[in-house]
Design goal:
Structural class: alpha+beta
CATH topology: Alpha-Beta Plaits
Shape: globular
Number of domains: 1
Number of strands: 4
Distance between the termini: 11 Å
Strand content: 25-35%
CATH architecture: 2-Layer Sandwich
Strand order of the largest sheet: 2-3-1-4
Helix content: 25-40%
Length: 96
């Protein structure tokens, strides 16, 4: 079974909306087989540079599932909870 990862770097600029977003996005992703692998925490730089943004990594059953959830009406509603409250980089990466 293919595995895929959703990798997110977050800089929260306003806390409003984030607690509810975090709870609901975890529930939505779990319904689609997504689970947290990394959820913040300290980053130990072994080489290169760490810019201080929070790092979150989810594992999903496939790239297709990530695309389906990310583009769903349910996620569109949740996304509104955090819009304007932070800066995100989000990547979907197939596993090996």
């Amino acid at each position: 079974m293919p595995i895929a990862y959703l990798i997110v770097r977050i800089k929260i600029t306003r806390e409003e909306g984030w607690p509810e977003y975090r709870q609901k996005v975890a529930e939505l992703f779990a319904k689609h087989g997504g689970r947290y692998l990394v959820r913040g925490g300290p980053v130990e730089v072994l080489e290169g540079f760490y810019d201080g943004r929070r790092l979150v990594v989810f594992e999903f059953p496939s790239m297709e599932v990530i695309r389906s959830v990310w583009n769903s009406p349910q996620y569109a509603k949740l996304k509104k909870l955090r819009q304007g409250s932070g800066e995100l980089d989000v990547w979907a990466v197939p596993g090996v």
